[in-house]
Amino acid sequence: MGSPDVLNEPVEDFEVKGGDLAKDISRKMEKMGGFTGRHFAEGVEILKTMFSGEITNMLSFPAAVMATGLRGILVQLVKEGRFDIVITTCGTLDHDLARRFSSYYKGDFKLDDEKLAQENIHRLGNVLVPKRAYGPLIEEKLQPFLEELYNEGIKEISSVELIWKIGEKLCDESCLMYWAWKNRIPIVVPGITDGAVGAQLWLFYNKRRDFKINVLKDEDYISDVVFNAKKLGALIIGGGISKHHTIWWAQFKGGLDYAVYITTALEYDGSLSGALIREGISWGKVKPKARFVTIHGDATLILPFLIAASI
Question: Which residues contact 192 (CB under 8 A, 6 or more apart)?
Fold first, then answer.
């Protein structure tokens, strides 16, 4: 028997009906007791608060999800202005740009990678990326654009400002970068050289040695968002540098007040991706009294229902 003071919320069974909405099911899951389903319901309630109050919200995710249809939801969140800043990886720019002009395709995890290589097809999990739709296309679109900027006298620029410039040039409502430019929402890419867009920046630098990406200026954008916040919330999808940069900056405001973290990683290897949100309390990255939850699972499955139930 446990201590009596913890035995105060009995587990409740629930049924579902054909017409149930994500909101309806989430309310039922809140009372189910276990396991990840309950964490999902907690995440919904936290996001509802984040979207409805005077809270400055940060969105963090890695590039892989942009290669899937989940790109549409991420674009929607920026279009609707539900987040004040986005922190992500260079591949997000790659996929956003590539999919503006070409298509990715449904594949399978078990496809023959040697054969795919012979056919000039890249495999990203179970998504297929034709070679012509990635590196060569990004070079074709980006090099003339960078030359145009340079000829306008822009020889030093932050990645935030560069992304806004690309978004303005793309002028396409399906693009994350377009809505970031339209709504003046900073997209910060701490590892800007780690991807196809980054490779093109390096190639251009080899032609124009006085061209520079000012990554420290990007930090000013994060600083302004964090220090001007009354309360700070974050939706963190996946781990790596985008997650770390988000919670790293939160510590300078005393930590996150609200956080929802979606991950497939485990904490037992000490990785940042596997670290539960509560570990951030010991670093000052999450406030001890914060509302937070870690939801274990694939974001392509969880995020659509999480957002549908939250807005």
Answer: 90, 159, 198, 201, 213, 215
Question: Two tokens at 110?
Answer: 């078990």
pTM over 0.90: yes
Q: Which residues are catalytic?
A: 285
CA distances from 52 to 60, 138, 162, 190, 226 (A): 19, 38, 31, 29, 18
* Token pair listed for 214: 């000012």
Q: What percent of the chain has pLDDT over 90?
A: 93
CA distances from 246 to 5, 30, 62, 85, 265 (A): 36, 28, 12, 10, 18
Q: Which residues touch 288 (CB under 8 Å, ≥6 apart)? A: 255, 281
Q: What does the pLDDT look like over 90-121, one tens digit per residue?
A: 999 999 999 999 999 999 999 999 999 999 99
Exposed / middle / buried, residue 147 (Cβ in 10 Å: 0-12, 13-18, 19+)? middle
